[in-house]
Amino acid sequence: MVEREAGTNRSRRRCRTRVSSFRPSRPRPARSVWAAVADVLLVVEIVSPGSEAMDSVTKVREYASAGIPQYWVVDRDGAQTVTLHRLGGNGTYEERARMPLAWLLQTAPADHLD
Predict the structure, then answer these.
(1) pTM, whole model, 2 decimals?
(2) Residue 45 near residue 55 (C-beta atoms within 8 A)
């Protein structure tokens, strides 16, 4: 699994994310920031002031329709709460867990991936 800031290029819309994890199924140029949607395993979005609606509504729909299996959202509240979403059988994300970022950082990402 490879982790870095990346984006997906799906049809004519490009979506930049803070952190993406993807299958290194085919080589990419070292400077490339775009990943094939089929290779993306996890998107972690850090909610920025002013982008709450984009991060919690628009991007959620786009990532779900792209079939990205996991979507994590880091809120900028006091605990920096992380909400872990998993793509359900109906094509929408289901909340799987919610925890403080400090706790999540004590675990390996693979502990939370299917």
Answers:
(1) 0.70
(2) yes
Structure confidence at residue 94 (pLDDT): 94
- Classify strands 19-22 and 7-10 as parallel, antiparallel or unpaired: unpaired
Would you say how long the chain is, in residues? 114
The closest of 15, 36, 14 to 26, measured between CA atoms, is 36
- 39 Cβ neighbours under 8 A, 6+ residues apart: 22, 23, 24, 25, 26
Mean pLDDT of the region 14-23: 50
Give me 50's structure tokens.
Answer: 């002013």
Closest CA to 24 of 6, 12, 39: 39
What are phi and psi for residue 45, nearest 5 degrees? -115, 130
3-class DSSP assignment, residue 56: helix
Task: Name the nearest CA neighbour of 87 among 99, 73, 71.
Answer: 71
